[in-house]
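Two proteins, back to back. First:
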Amino acid sequence: MKSLFSIISDKNVGSPIMRGALAALTVESANEILANLFGKESAEFVNAIYVKDGVLGVRVNSSSAASEVKLNESLILSEISSKYGEKAVNKIRIIL
């Protein structure tokens, strides 16, 4: 049985509403992945905030957190692409 998201996305892949929904789901998923990688307490130091044009914006509070995100970038991107497809996110932008 198909999920509601997959049914709707099959119909309106290019619509602005679907792109926004995919971006919101991607940010939520990225925050879960970051929490699994760095621990639940990391939410105050590392937080995904947006997706735009295939770029995931990640806010960090320290340079050491930025280094850890960059070191694990390929793992984060591969987990996101396994959930939402190859074109969902292809790069991470660190925001200090």
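And the second protein:
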Amino acid sequence: MREARVARFVRATPVVVERALTPAAVVEYEGSFDVRDVTETDDVTLVTAGARGLELQYAFETREDGLRYVQCEGGPLDALETTLTYTAEDEGTRVTMASTVSAGLPLPVLTDRAAAWKRRGELRRALSRLAEDVA
């Protein structure tokens, strides 16, 4: 398993950031998959997403300071868990996304590193799109 972590200051209040960070929006902000369905239950929100013949599902849970989500079985990675947190800072909000990833392939030293590198790009893209969306 490898970790990818990205943080960014956003010029919007935590309340505005919280409203923008719906589970579907987070998946769209990451930019790798298109949202196909959202199902809400009492405990979690399930987001079904896909691209190029691949379909996967994420399970989101809301936390006091953000979101936590995991890739459900059947996705492209062996394991993916992400926490997204936000806290007030100056005249805006500090948003942090941290993921642990495992490709589940031989030579995990290399394959997990590559998966974390790709994931870091998705996290950067997500925070950049969030910043544009709430500006």
